[in-house]
Amino acid sequence: MGRHSKMGLTEAKQPRSLLSKMDASYHAASGKLRSSSVTLNAQACQDFWHAQWTASSSDEGAEYTRNMPMAKDNKHMHTRTKFLSQQTGESTTPVDPLGMGIADMDCPPPGVIGKRLAAALSSHYGYHDIHHATANAVSHWFKPQGTQHIAANSPVSPHSVVGVASVVSAVDVALKTFCQPGDSIMILTPTYGPLKACIALNGMQAHDIAISTSSKAAHSINLNALCENASAMVLCHPNNPTGTVLSEQCQEEIVTFCHQHNILLVTDEVHSEFGFSSPYRPASVPLFGSKSRLRDRCNIIHINSVSKAFNLAAVPGASYAIVPNPDSKQQFAQAIKARHLEASFLSQLALIAAYKDGGAWLNALRHSIDYNRQFVDFYFNYHGLHPDYTLGQAGYFLWLNLESKDASRYTCTSAARSFQACLDRGVMGTDGQSFGAPGFIRLNLACHPRVIEQALDRIFFNRF
Ligand SMILES: Cc1ncc(COP(=O)(O)O)c(C=O)c1O
Question: Is 187 in the pocket of ligand 1 (CB under 6 A)?
Fold first, then answer.
């Protein structure tokens, strides 16, 4: 692929879509890998998104050109874009909007979940306690021999599981239960904004630990920045928006530090099902610190949810905490119960169906996201662009510095330099400001790759 040969071409001579060129390189890579268990079919990945697209649109007569869907034909995209525009305060965008902001995906959840919920709605009334089934489903999901998690994971006892209504409420209750107003709480920056808001809303002080936003960064943080006097650390891992997965050694050092200084470690692991550490082999990211000694892990509260991995935000699917220390688990469970923040019956049914029967769906989805992530790298290489960006090792986000200086001739003149400039071009991402990083944009890549190409064309070349 002669990326330099493209530099001299006029825009008019460029092909309409780079996807076919990307596919050629994808197939070449598949030839080099021997594992037959890996799905490396580029067309299958595109077909995945294409199928989602057509499935979620009910417009009679909507035209779908293979690999070239238009945002306006997609019902689901419309609802996401509308929701996003309410959030950003933008009532309209001047051009066809590409909704790449909020962290949900352009595909319906596995059909089996909808069927189970619909059946339950007409047969179950009143209050139900299915916590044991939920706890068993979570425990099974993390079993080393289970379908999703490789041997690196440590076993999760069903007794350590607490069902909760949402991830952020679980973080909030953990801070309320185990810390005091005025306490210092460590948190990564940039990171998911509501986590930092939780700290402030509880009258606690955020102690920022910087994490690199560069794709070439080491998978670690500056351990000297850890604070002995903090009473907790709230850690988004994998980190949203940078997709950072810390090295096993770094995880171990954090766990040991927290254990030594009696610091509660609250991990938000909601993006952990989307691990892309090795290309073409997506897998779940193991529980944070699972390589650490059991003794050192007794003050961790791991929080996760099926909402993100199985696209169940509208239900929502159940969230849960894994609290290995029995005393802490009891205290935490009581605090959740006292606030009526347990996971609802339907959300738990969704979790059980997802963890029992959603594995194959999740795998296909992960390969399709892997393809999209590789397409982003391909796009920049092909055009000879060198923006400051990262996809991290997990998640479905492109984290892009709009203010980065790029020596290449292409970007200098036409690239959008601010979040507002992206909005003006109809690219509705998430403003880096909400993660504590103004000048950045987060783009959701869980969509048809043609949408990603359109968005990048608009951002870098002002081309529609
Ligand atoms: C890192 C992270 N945590 C939590 C949430 C929200 O979870 P919940 O709605 O269950 O509070 C999100 C949603 O995007 C997220 O990205």
Answer: no
